[in-house]
Amino acid sequence: MGDAQMEEGDNTREIEVAPALIAVDPAQRSVAVAVGSDLRVYDLIGDCPVSLVDDSAKPFHSDSIRAIRYDASGKLFVSAGDDKLVKIWSTDSWFCISSVCCEKRVSAVAVSNDGLFVCFADKFGVVWVVSLKGDAENQALADKKAAPMLAHYCSIITSLEFSPDGRFIVSADRDYKIRVTVVPKNPLDGAHEIQTFCLGHSEYVSCLDFIHSPDYPHGLLISGSGDSTVRLWDVTLGSLLDTCEIGSKFDRRFTFFLKAELSATDGIEEDPCHAVTDLCTCPNGTSVALAVQSLKGIMLLNCNLSAKTLSMAKVVLVEGETLIPTSLGTSLSEGLLWMVTGISKLQGFDHSSLARVRAVSFPEDDGRDAEPVLLRDDEIPGGQKLLERLQGSVSIGNDVFLAASEALKTSMRSLLIKKQYSDEKREFRKRTRNDRKLKH
Amino acid sequence: MIEKETTSTFNKSTGLPRKRFYRARAHSNPLSDSHFPVPLSPSQFDYSLHYPQLVPAASDDDNPKRIQFADIGCGFGGLLVALSTLFPDKLMIGMEIRDKVSEYVKERISALRTTNPGQYQNISVVRTNSMKYIPNYFEKGQLTKMFFLFPDPHFKEKNHRRRVISPHLLDEYAYTLAVGGIIYTITDVEELGEWMKGCLENHPMFEALMEEELENDLVVKLLTSATEEGQKVARNGGQTFQAVYRRIAPPL
Ligand SMILES: C[S@@+](CC[C@H](N)C(=O)[O-])C[C@H]1O[C@@H](n2cnc3c(N)ncnc32)[C@H](O)[C@@H]1O
């Protein structure tokens, strides 16, 4: 009874557009971009594009990649997505060391700080774990089996992060929830002890990151949401330490950018949407960079770890391009913040594998007001060769940006916001359900 | 809707709402999107609306009373009514996903409060999907008893993840229960009884109560007799299968 009725997680099949993703090696030895099913890597040490090697039964990805990341050491790279495959790559040789088959599409990945466990979340809210013990040495291509570790009840998990001290794994979902779970000795037996929930967001939680420093090794959690806020949390207690409203009326300096940008791209009046789509902590250890759904650039927040506060710092606009980043990435060591915009599977659009990559440098923090600088294409590490590899082409026409920003809006909205069916529509869906049809 | 017809939906002799006006679909799909308000966090739950006499709105109590018992899938509320007078100083809540059924319980409690002044002030009900929103209602370790009486069986294997007792949901119940808190489950479906017992038995943060403890626990007797479903099973002479477990500290 009621089987086909709107099971969450099953109903996103219609959303085919996938935002481009970027990830940067912790020491900036390489940069990776995913557009659709295409995974592109540029080696900054060898200054050359990387060819990935994948001998598994199902080589490479065959559907949109939804999550990519390096582990803390930079030795491993993980990619996963709609083709229900989690691929673990060794970054020495860019060889796929393991290809894990999942039952459902994968929405987020994380690697434990010791590099021994890869966790990934599926569209039904289950977080799975695979052990990499032993693999690093023999490099055997193992078709691993994942064990269920924890679950959010049937809610898409949008982000997964290990805490800097490795004690907790944090998972965020589109039901406004952030769950903090104690990482057990053997994660394969399941993580049953919930430390706390961080509750307070009033829309889907889209992104998580930890900010920490030598003085604050446990770090604080930062979350971004469709409710246009970024929040700072203590994950041991689940307490909300500070909330920063994006485009808050009190901060005219910044709403100006958001409003101006929005009307420029849309040409029509609509509620400005300041949904936070991605965030990442910056190399200087105090800034947090945000991608905001209608901002052509990035917003920077200041995080004061000792005072436990978040405040708006500045907006870095990308001049001359309609670049609304779909994903942000950074390396801890090199002082660069990378961004990408792009989209795949956009209907009626033939540049669907194109993406645009930019980088912002954070100068050494000697003077307090060192301005972040948007690098020109010839200033970016790797230069033209890198752009050719990661973007798919050296120069990207403005039509690509416009299409991408429009598509990003739709995909964010439909991927993350719950479907609101009117009563009639709900009745209609019930009447036309396949299971019912079969029975009568 | 019900306000208009108060005279006819209430039984004249008992003053209680009549169940037939609150009939609803037999089963709900707990996975489907529903539209009812959910507190953003436990601190946003308005106790004064639910327990106006025991937790008044304008109180400057530093340590206000909190809910300690939760009846998950409370149905028509028979257990709450029985527990109310047995533990008059404990706040209790029923969680029920079916709108009409939760409305019925609400009316039932308010009628009991009217006919028995000063009593039944410690019980209330919310319409919610307990499988999704328990952490929105209760803080860590807040509850001392949780009840799962005659839950929907969801027989098919592929629907097992809809069961209110499952390995992953037990993690949430363990979070919500204080160490020493007790979880009570009972069913007339043997297979479900085994499933619930198995889930609890295999969970590192629960241990079974001993025979003697079960005998001394007043509440255990209510499992088969207090709820509407329990009474129905008893009338039909059905067998029941219970599992009663204590929340313990996680192993180090
Ligand atoms: C068979 S009845 C038992 C009711 C009651 N405990 C009794 O013993 O009479 C199960 C009840 O659980 C409710 N229920 C099922 N899933 C639920 C959920 N996810 N959250 C809250 N209530 C739920 C159903 O609506 C139904 O009223």
Question: How does this structure look, described?
Answer:
The complex is a heterodimer of chains A (440) and B (252). Chain A has 440 residues and is mainly β. Chain A has a domain at 52-196: Methylamine Dehydrogenase, Chain H (7 Propeller), CATH 2.130.10. Helices cover 14% and strands 39% of the residues of chain A. Chain A is built from six helices and 29 strands. In chain A, the strands form seven sheets. In chain A, strands 1, 26, 27, 28 and 29 form a five-stranded antiparallel β-sheet that branches. In chain A, strands 2-3-4-5 form a four-stranded antiparallel β-sheet, covered by helices on one side. Chain A has a four-stranded antiparallel β-sheet with strand order 6-7-8-9, with no helix packed on it. In chain A, a hairpin with a 2-residue loop joins strand 18 (205-213) and strand 19 (216-225). Chain A is globular, with a radius of gyration of 21 Å. Residues 1-14, 260-270, 419-424 and 433-440 of chain A have low confidence and may be disordered. Chain B has 252 residues and is an alpha/beta fold. Residues 1-7 and 24-33 of chain B have low confidence and may be disordered. Chain B has a single domain (61-154, 163-247), classed as Rossmann fold, CATH 3.40.50.150. Chain B is globular, with a radius of gyration of 18 Å. The longest helix of chain B is centred in the middle third of the chain and has 17 residues, at 99-115. Chain B is built from ten helices and seven strands. The A-B interface holds A 1-3, 5-8, 124, 126, 148, 150-151, 153-155, 175-177, 179, 181-182, 190-194, 196-197, 199-202, 238, 418-421 and B 27-29, 31-33, 35, 40-42, 131-132, 135-136, 140, 159, 161, 167-172, 174-175, 203-205, 250. S-adenosylmethionine (SAM) binds at residues 28, 30, 73-75, 95-98, 101, 129-131, 149-152, 164, 227-230 of chain B.
